[in-house]
Design a protein that fits this description.
Elements (H helix, E strand, L loop, with lengths): L2 H8 L2 H24 L5 H23 L7
Helix pairs in contact: 2-3
Length: 71
C-alpha cells in the first residue's frame, strides 16, 4: 500500500473534528469582532469559550491515546 493511502487510513476523524471546532471558535471571535467592532461582547465570549475549550480538550484527549484509544 502506498504511503499517502496508509496515512489516510490511519487518520483520526474525531481529532480532526475537534481541531475544526477549535479553529472555528477562534475564527468566529476574530471575524465577529472585526466586522461588528465588538471586542468585549459577553454573548460572543459565551459561545467562543465553549467552542475553543471543547475543541482543545477533545483534540488533546485524542492525542494522548494511540489510534484514538483503540487497541
Amino acid at each position: 500500500m502506498s504511503e499517502p493511502l496508509q496515512m489516510l487510513k490511519k487518520s483520526n476523524y474525531a481529532r480532526m473534528f475537534y481541531l475544526v471546532v477549535l479553529v472555528t471558535g477562534i475564527v468566529l471571535y476574530l471575524m465577529w469582532s472585526i466586522i461588528y467592532d465588538a471586542w468585549f461582547d459577553l454573548g460572543l465570549y459565551s459561545i467562543v469559550v465553549l467552542m475553543v475549550s471543547f475543541g482543545l480538550v477533545g483534540y488533546l484527549l485524542y492525542g494522548i491515546a494511540p489510534d484514538g484509544g483503540k487497541k
